[in-house]
Amino acid sequence: RGATVILACRNMEKANEAIKKIREETKAGEMIPIELDLASFESIHAFVNLIKEKFPKFECLINNAGLAVVTEQATKEGIELHTGTNHIGPFLLTNLLMENIKMNKSKIVIVSSKAHERAVLTKVDDLGEFDKGSKHIAANAPYMKSKLMNFYFAKELYKRGVDVHVCC
């Protein structure tokens, strides 16, 4: 449809490969790769500053983070990697862009997972506890919890009048 699409990617080489594949299907529109690592608050702030400066008007923000690992890892800020990348990073990004989202009446799409149905959030302290006994992503409690957090975030955005959608 001729849209301008910002591809926010942590790996610019892979972003350019994706653009090349898309270009095999269509020449329409503009695709702009910009580095964004949702596991780094510094990267999120830099990305938001660039968007506000160069692309302040946008119609849709798609939060598509879906990292899943089977080894215990953390973000640059020391947050469990699933929680940080799949929820806290997009949460921060969305809130830093909220003024633009409201001004533009932008939609937000949050890509979650059916895995959220198996998650249990019992207390704030266990949001990022890694299940050292789990060797399979499908049984990865932090991943499932991060995807449940996506749903709770969307529900709160909706209550605040934001046009938000969640999909798996």
Describe this structure in words.
- Strand 1, helix 1 and strand 2 (about 30-35) form a beta-alpha-beta unit.
- The protein is globular and about 45 Å long.
- It has helices spanning about 10-25, 40-55, 80-95, 100-105, 140-160, and strands at about 5-10, 30-35, 60-65, 105-110, 165.
- It starts with a strand and ends with a strand.
- It contains 5 helices and 5 strands.
- The chain is α/β, with parallel strands linked by helices.
- It is about 40% helix and about 15% strand.
- The longest helix has 19 residues, at about 140-160.
- H/E topology pattern: EHEHEHHEHE
Radius of gyration: 16 Å
Largest sheet: 3 strands, parallel
Count of individual beta strands: 5
User: Which percent range describes the beta-strand content?
Assistant: 15-25%
Average pLDDT value? 89
Structural class: alpha/beta
For the biggest β-sheet, the strand order reads 3-4-5
Q: What is the tally of helical segments?
A: 5
Distance between the termini: 24 Å
Q: State the shape.
A: globular
Estimate percent helicity: 40-55%
Give unreliable regions as ranges: none
